[in-house]
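Researcher: Sequence recovery benchmark, item below. Answer with residues only.
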């Protein structure tokens, strides 16, 4: 479920996902994201929100993007949903 929260310059639309392990570095590395932006590729960001160890080991990540609109556009929602699907797939392989 995509949620929205206000930011100082607009809104963040995001979806939190629980995974068994950290996603591949290409999803969470800010330098990779900057290179992608320079090359014209924009995609939702992935932030590690919580990491737990032991019996209930896992990680919660937030896939989200920033927007000027209080409601995500169909393209923004599709981008977040697609990234969430990719994160879940990478967690199962």
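Model:
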């Amino acid at each position: 479920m995509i949620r929205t929260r206000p930011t100082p310059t607009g809104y963040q639309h995001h979806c939190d996902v629980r995974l068994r392990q950290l996603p591949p570095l290409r999803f969470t590395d800010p330098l990779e994201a900057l290179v992608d932006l320079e090359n014209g590729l924009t995609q939702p960001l992935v932030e590690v929100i919580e990491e737990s160890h032991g019996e209930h080991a896992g990680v919660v990540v937030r896939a989200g993007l920033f927007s000027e609109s209080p409601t995500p556009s169909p393209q923004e929602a599709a981008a977040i949903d697609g990234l969430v699907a990719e994160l879940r797939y990478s967690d199962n392989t």
